[in-house]
Amino acid sequence: MPVVKHDDLVMQALLLEEIQQSVIGLDNTWRVTYWNHASERLYGFGSTEVLGRKISELGIIAGLDLQGQAVALREITEGIAAGQGWAGEFWMQHRMGRGFTVYATVSPVRGIAAKSVAAVAVSTEITRDITELKRLQVAAAELERLVAAQEMVHMGIVEHDIVSNRWSHSDEYARIYGLAPGELVSRKQSLALVHPEDLELIQAARRALDSGTKRVEYEFRIMRADGELRWMQSQARMTHDANNGAPLRFLATVMDITDRKDAEQVLEWQARHDALTGLPNRYLLIDVLQGFLARASRRVVVMFVDVDRFKLVNDGIGHTAGDALLILLGERLRTAVRSGDTVGRFGGDEFVIVCENLGIRDAAAAAERIRMATRQPFNIDGRRIFLNVSVGIAVSGPGDTAESLLNGADTAMYEAKAAGGDGSVVYDSRTTGQAAGRLDLQSDLRVALERDELFLEYQPIIELDTEQTVGFEALLRWRHREHGLIMPDTFIPIAEETGLILPIGTWVLNEALAQVQRWRSNVPGAGNLWAAVNISARQLVTPDFPDIVHTAAVAAGIDPAAVNLEITETVLMEQPELPSETLHRLHDLGVGLSIDDFGTGYSSLSYIQWMSARTLKIDRSFIEVLDTDPQRASIIELILGMARTLDLVVIAEGVETPNQLAELRRLGVHHAQGYLWSKPMPADKVTAWLT
């Protein structure tokens, strides 16, 4: 039989106290140390009568005289000493004289000493049917499975008998502590392996158990003999004397949870770092910033770094290359600052740098180093990419918080962008006054319509065969009373996040349709102009959006067939569950859907067809490369082939050079817009343009 530890067997006996098998614990002199209820029933002796007495003194071994008993016990002792145990039949008798045969297994138990010092005998009476024998075999199998399960989950068991001061443990316990199978470790040795920082935790748990607590659970670390640090989880309980409450028996399980702890650390790291660049994310940056601010004697500087016109760069090289560029930019920023400064990614192309003990002049110099470092070309897939950045700087003052500093740096960054980009602006909270960051822009945007600060500009759409204007795209602008012209890339995301895009979008729709219809009615030859209006996915999924469009068209008096609602392909793909009822109602109205920036997302033919799209607008990134890489024209040819299959109108965006125009004509593109003909213009300039 396999060697099974004392603590395993005794724990099993406690769990199976009421079954028919007799479980007897014996020390190395064959004195009884444990006697369960089944033993009482089988032999007629109570536990108080036999504990401490030698098994041979009880007279229950009936088939052998004293000499024969000595021989049999010596045979069993030799088997146990060899670590093999013993199994066989014995003729036994009840204290009242009834004889019977038992099948017994005697297993060794190892304690602190290297030799066998105890044994457990499990026996059952053999009857004409062998039910009890089968039960014994099942119990033995269950016990082996228990030990195997403990090994599989890296769980060890340790027991301390307070009365006899015996300390014993399972093989798995020794393995967890870095010892060889069968090697023994004392309580003192176990405590010596505990990490010094966790030793008091272990001792406090034991004191709680000694004082009456029945069960405790705790986690701690050990330093194994090989130097490896491992995490343990322990559940311990104490048996107390029913009369005086004195502790009698300590039993604990110890599980190796190092893998789980490592996984938790990975998850914690991921929660506080940017997945793309590995830099601290906004949550960790705020923690760092709050920690710096807690040191009242130190000045803290926050720099907001944003790439100028990154969307154009990203669209031009593709999103995968754009991600690689952001990774390189993060590395470049870390080399441009001091070793103690923290560089993190706030999201998108926005990076934040937190510095301690830096003055305004030094901060401005640091921002200049950052700008110079980022001006050096980046090599992406064999291409040299040049970037410019805008840097906003905020310096801490009395009463500043992490939020106020970030808001101030954000404000300064947008001031740098408004000044043309590729520069830095210092925002000092002690002298600058109220911040006008995104929170202030959000507040101002809510009243921008009331203040008549929002207006539209119109860019003509040209039919290439005739060079005639066939429509206008309405483009939203915001002229802030304090900050001047604010571009859509700045305020449209705020409008989307806050829901302001819904009332603003309704205003744009009404204003654009009314204006285009005035040209259609009043300018000779303009009766068939299109009106292209950009909408957001948030508008499109609003249940009453078709009613809003219908009301705007009726109020303007424009034919719905002359209206194209434009939504970018990337935004469209982020909102795949478009309400089919809305699309059907728009289609029934005669309004067209146009997919803007086509080629930057992942639209499928079936999806475009399901939407009943009317127009595709080829993204400007495909047009720009026609000057330098005419072979990229094959992509446009594929788009044109798909459009012809679906009977779609194709418009090329961002046409700026005669070479691009010539190539588009050669490819068979019939409509385009771009600076080659006109920048977006105010409404009062359009009539002259048309005539």
Compact overview of the structure:
The protein has 691 residues and is of the alpha+beta class. The chain contains 26 helices and 27 strands.
Question: Can you give a write-up of this model?
Answer:
By secondary structure, this protein is an alpha+beta fold. Helix content is 42%, strand content 25%. The protein has an 8-stranded mixed barrel, surrounded by 4 helices. A 5-stranded antiparallel sheet has the order 2-1-5-4-3, with helices on both faces. Helix 15 (438-446) crosses helix 16 and helix 17 (501-522) packs parallel to helix 19 (545-556). The longest helix is centred in the N-terminal third of the chain and has 22 residues, at 131-152. It is elongated and about 130 Å long. It starts with 5 loop residues before the first helix and ends with a helix. 35% of the residues are buried.
Q: Could you list some keywords that capture this structure?
A:
alpha+beta, 25% strand, 27 strands, five-stranded antiparallel beta sheet, single chain, 691 residues
- Strand tally is 27
Give a quick account of the main beta sheet: strands, pairing sense, barrel closure.
8 strands, mixed, barrel
By DSSP (H or I, 4+ residues per run), the number of helices equals 26
| Apparent shape | elongated
| Percent range for β-strand residues | 25-35%
| Helix proportion range | 40-55%
Ends apart, CA distance between termini: 105 Å
Low-confidence stretches: 1-7, 112-117, 128-144, 146-153, 428-436, 601-606
Q: What is the radius of gyration?
A: 41 Å
Question: How is the largest sheet built, in terms of strand order?
Answer: 18-19-21-22-23-24-25-26
Structural class: alpha+beta
